[in-house]
């Protein structure tokens, strides 16, 4: 189905309007969103995405609607996985919690711009060279393999090449000045960490696009569906960050689920490439008769794999232990970092959360909590947080 320029224009205006609304009504004044606020707005954005999908289903047909929902669910799952990296970056830069919303919105806008560029580039390549499906399939299979590799918990995602160059070439400071990108220090204008963290988020967004765009092109080659599914998957990501903050570590099997989904789509792309084959060294440049995977089967596999992954993560004793211990470490580190936030109530919130997590940990089977990596270092951080709290309250 061909989408008219009018529909394209209306869709783009609606998406830009949602971003503008997010900024002027939620981000402009720095604050820490409540759980209720994050839950309500996450539901609204998911609801809008579903309503849009129903409209596509009604006016575009079952195939087009199925492609949209398969693409949206896949991109949403990849976006949740990306939140892990955002969490590491903001922790590395010690971004005050009340200013994290602005950083996330910048990341979403930059991701939308970067992915839109990749979408139209990918569409142009596909229309000109059918062998690009082989390349996209290979990218996804390699990405799936990388997701299965054990992660290095000591890796500093914020200390990337762009940041090191920026710190070396440009005058920077380690201190925040609200949400300003530049400030004056010793009579000179310098860059604040707020600008650097936005550069780090933008750089990772480009890397994420290299994985997500081939994935959705493996489900549909309709540029309108690719764009809208990607855009709506990014909408509400800021609210989702605050809603599931602290639960991200719980999804211990998410990387395995995503690896399975990307590998599945990678195989689907290779099969499609064989069906459309024009490379002379494969079957003498003739199309290869292979089974092609339908949109319905793709949607079923994606939903099934994600459901099994999430349920297995949530009921796993190891997952519960890892979540509680990692959250306790994060809250202990945040509490010890006096420059983390200027909000005293936020400091108390962190300490209460730390105490609650300790209670949960003590109720768990010792064999699971002792298996968490760097457990002794984590216990030392928690002990230091208690000592600091005792000193703070005794003043």
TrEMBL record:
Pfam families: TerC
UniProt keyword annotation of Transmembrane present: yes
Mode of membrane association: Multi-pass membrane protein
Glycoprotein found in the keyword field: no
Compartments it resides in: Membrane
Domain of life: Bacteria
GO cellular component terms attached to this protein's record: membrane
Matches recorded under InterPro entries: Integral_membrane_TerC, Integral_membrane_TerC_rswitch
Main subcellular location: membrane
Residue ranges crossing the lipid bilayer per the database entry: 6-26, 38-62, 68-91, 103-125, 131-148, 190-210, 222-244, 251-273, 293-315
Family per record: Belongs to the TerC family.
Name of this protein: TerC family protein
Native organism: Arthrobacter caoxuetaonis
